Amino acid sequence: MANTFLILQLVAVFTVVSLSLLGSFFIVFANLMEFRSSGVLQTGDLIITCLALSNGLTDVGQVPWFLVYILNLCNNTGEDLYKATDFLNTFFNKASSWFTAWLCLFYCVKIVKVNWRTFLKLKRRISSVVKVLIVVTLVGCLALSLPIIFFIQLQSNITSISAQCKNYYINENNSHVYASFLSFFTSFLPLAIMLVSCMMIVTFLCKHSRKMSKNTNSISGPLRNGPVAVAKMITSLIVLYVLCTGTVFALNSLVVLEGNVMVFISLSCSVYSAGCSMILIIGTVKLREKCRGVCCRGNRTEKPKHS
Fold it and tell me: Model pTM?
């Protein structure tokens, strides 16, 4: 029974991680090819590339962690591997949360039309502001993730290898304070920006739709469909983010799962990465067209020739 559960864990982990890596690095590769051909990467594409790269690198770090954690190999690798993988996974995962927030904010600034002076200045300088936000995000997440290595220590007084490999965090008051601090600045604060941006977009589009419906000569083509598609995309991203983040916080409060809780928490992060890649590819016209082109090309090459 234990071996069956172990196999199911490994199959689920590597299926989700493989899908996430495939989608994330397809987005990065597609946008890099776009930059290579045109010499310019649009601001929205830049944020999407950073988001996909963060998701992909998170899953790259997840692979050795899953192997060591599930197979109880910590005696062979020591606590240094846990420190490296947990730090990198936290850094890239938290950066991903902020990049999702900045993507929502960017589309909010591009779509919503208001006469607020600050909003108009932001709209004019959005390209420069986004570059600054990306740098600040990387530096901030680096500083916030670094203390995690000081709370990781293998317990030498535990005889069970399984318990030693699965309970390697020091349970102190400082660790709880740090976890709360990290959650607020890298989970709840980005979520607040996502929700406010999404609400502004939806409210603006609803008001705009009512105005246009009163005008019989209004244009009801791509000019209206584009912002609506963007609204659907970022709404889907937020719903996915809430579900995965909520699952992580719920699992943290469960005692029933014991040592396996970390596997499900990490798996939730990989599910977010995989789902995020799918939403971005489906919701972005250029990525969707390139994905369709790759799939159609693959079908043509696999099609047998008739004599």
Answer: 0.90
